[in-house]
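Table S5 (text form). Sequence records supplied for joint modeling of the two-component complex.
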Amino acid sequence: MAKKTFRMAINEAIAQEMRRDPTVIVMGEDNAGGMGAPGEDDAWGGVLGVTKGLMPEFGRERVLDTPITESAFIGAAVGAAATGLRPVAELMFVDFMGVCLDQIYNQAGKFRYMFGGKAVTPLVIRTMFGAGFRAASQHSQCLYPVFTHFPGLKVVIPSSPYEAKGLMIQSIRDDDPVIFFEHKVMYDDEEEVPDESYTIPFGEANLTREGDDVTIVAFGRMVKLANQVADSLAGDGIGCTVVDPRTTSPLDTETILECVADTGRLVVVDEANPRCSMASDIAALVAENAFDALKAPIRMVTAPHTPVPFSPDLEDLYIPTPEKIEAAVREVAGRG
Amino acid sequence: MQLSRGMQLSREELLRAYRGMRTIRDFEERVHDEFAAGTIPGFVHLYAGEEASAIGVCLDLEDKDRIASTHRGHGHCIAKGCDVTGMMMEIYGRRDGLCGGKGGSMHIADLAKGMMGANGIVGGGPPLVCGAALSAKTLKTGGVAVGFVGDGGSNQGTTLESYNLARVWNLPAVFVVEDNGYAESTASGWAVAGDQLKRAEAFGMPGRRVDGHDFFEVYDAAKEAIDRARAGDGPSLIHVCLNRYYGHFEGDAMTYRGEGEVDRLRAERDSLALFRKRVSEAGLIESGQLDDIDREVALIIDGAVAASKAAPAPTLADLTTDVYVSY
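The corresponding C-alpha cell record, covering 663 residues in total, follows.
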C-alpha cells in the first residue's frame, strides 16, 4: 500500500468523490489559484496545496475560485447545498469563522429543523486549524468546540492520513452540513492509505491504543501525541487506552464511558482553550455517567485560556506536549 | 409611452396576479387581527401594503426558480405558491404547519416550491441566493434565483458581498431591495448612504427603481431582470420603493411614523386599489370578477384560520426530530 500525506489523502478523497458524483463541487479562495492572473492556472491549489490538481481535471465550473468574501461564498455553498449540489467549500483558516458564521450556524445548521425536516443541506466546509505554525492569534485556533455546540452541524477531526481520506469521503456523502477540521501541522504526515475509496462512519470512536490503567481521549493532532505517550509508558508498566472520537458531533459517548469503566482513570487532551471545550464536555460526561468507576480525578490537558501567541517560545508553551500528557497520566495512574 | 408588458398579460394572468395580492392582503390583515386578539404567539412582521412587489416579481417564476426572503416573508411565500393553510398553521405553531411548527413566521419555507425561507437574520438571504443561482447554473436547470432584502438588509455586508460574488461568477440572480422607508424604526433616508441604483452600478449590475405600489411597474422591471438572468447575462438589482401598513412587528406602536402617514397611504397608494383602477380603466377586467376573487379569498383565509385554531399542537415526540438527516 502506498504511503500518502495527510494533504494527498484529502485531495484523493475529494477527487474520487468528484469523479463518482457530478454534483460535487469545490469552492474557496485560491482553491485553484491564479484566477484572472497572467501566470499559471492552478497556481496554488489552495493556500497549502490541498486542492491542487482538481481544477485541471474537473474544470473551472466545478472548482470555483472565490474572491475573499467568506460571508458570500460560504453562504453560497449553503444555498447551493440546499438546491441540489454537494459543495466542498474551504474556509481557509477556521479563525475566519467570525466573518461567515451566520451562514453556517443560523442558516445551514438550522434549515432541516426550521423547515420541518424538508431541507437537505449536504455541505462540507473544510477548514484549517491548530497551533504550531507560528501563525499567531488569528490563524491558529482550535474552534471545533464552538461548532460542536450547534445542533444541526456535524464536526469531524481526522487524526491521520488514513482517517482523513475515509472521513472526507463520508463527509461528502453525508446529507448534513459537516465541518471538517484539518490540522495545518499535519499536512506532511505520511502513512499507508489505500488507493480505493472507503468511508469511516461518524460517531464511532477509534481505539488507537489499548491498556488497562488510564483512558486518554484526544482529538486531531493530539491523538498522535497521546499515542507516543501510551507507547512510552507501556515500557513503565502503565497501560493506556487512547480514544480518538474522530467526530465531536456526533460524539461516541458510549465508547468513552466503556473505556473509563474499564480503566477508572481519564485524561482528556484537547488543543483548544479549556473553557466550554471538548475536554470540559467529556469530563462532565464522565463525571455524570461514570462517577462510580473513577479511581482518580479527571485531568484535562489543554491550551491555557489565552489567545495563541506568536513567539515560537511562547507557542511551544501554549500547545499541549507529550511531557504534559505524560505527567497527567502518571499522576492519575498513581492514584486509586 | 411604451406599453407596459404587465398590461399585455393575459386575462388569466392578471386575475392570478390580483388573486395573489388579495390573498396576501387578507392573510396579513387577518394575522394582524388574530395577533391583537392574542391567538398567535411570537413575532410576526406583516407585508400588508407591499403586495405588488412580491406578486410583480414572482408572477412569472416557476418551481425551479428559487427565492430567499426576509423577516417580512409571508407575502413572498404566498407569491411563490406556498399553501396558505399550511402557512397559517405554521404561524400558529401547529404540527401540520408548513414546517411542522418548528419554523414559525420568520422561517416559513417550502423548498419544493422554490421558497428557501423567510429569514430571521437581516441580510441572511443574498448569499443563499448566490448558491441557488450557482446550482441553477451548474446543473443547467434554466432556473434563476431571486433575493429579497429590505432597505435594512441592503446595508449588511452579506448583501454587498453577494452583489460582488454574483457579478464575479455571472450568476442568474436578481436582487430585489424592498425599501419600505424604515428598517425597524430607522428611516432608510438616514441609514442608507448613497443610492441603491448606484450601488448596483458600482458592482457592474443593471438596476431599476420602481414604484412598489404599482404591480405593472414591478412586473416590467422583474421580467427584464429575470429574462436577463435566464439568458445567462448575469445579475440585476431592482429598487422597489413601497410602504408597509403595519409596524416593524406586530405590537409596534409606530411612534416614529408621521401623523396620518399610513391613512394617506391606504387612501392614495394602495396597490390593490391601483391595480383595480388600471385594469378596469383599460377595460381588461370587470370589477365584478375582482369582487368574486375577494369573496373567494376571504373564505380561504377564514378556513385557514379556523383549521389552524383546531389543529393539533406538536408534541414531545416532535421536539428532537429533524435536527439531522442521520445522526
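Note: DSSP finds eleven helices and 14 strands in chain A.
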